[in-house]
Amino acid sequence: MDEAEKIVTEAIRALDDRKGVDIVKIDLREITNCFCSFFVICHGTSNSHVSGLADNVYEKVHDVLGEKPTHIEGMNQASWVLLDYGDTIVHVFQKEQRDYYQLEKFWADAKMTKIEENISTSYGRQ
After folding, report:
1. Nearest Cα to 41, choosing from 82, 78, 77, 3?
2. What is the pLDDT of residues 10-27, one digit of tens each?
3. Are the CB atoms for 114 and 37 separated by under 8 Å?
4. Residue 72 pairs with which residues in a beta bridge?
């Protein structure tokens, strides 16, 4: 498993731990000239939930892998927070913004995996 895949796994765990809604992994590696390898997308139910989801991703990825995002965008408004880890970008939306921007439809030609709730065991936790 390469570093980007490890970040994806930890980000998904972190989002699931804090009840992220409709978590999706988009594998962009087969897309020609794409700027990254993966998107992880979910939404929260309020500004504080979105902020808490993004904080948990930051903390878990740093604690487990020692990685920090190169850039974070949107924490002040917490309607769309982006954590940029280079080859992996994590998007945490409020539902209205997610519905408006429709990243899943924009990248529809990429391999998309919907993550089931409470996936901790399938992602390596017992």
Report:
1. 82
2. 999 999 999 999 999 999
3. no
4. 83
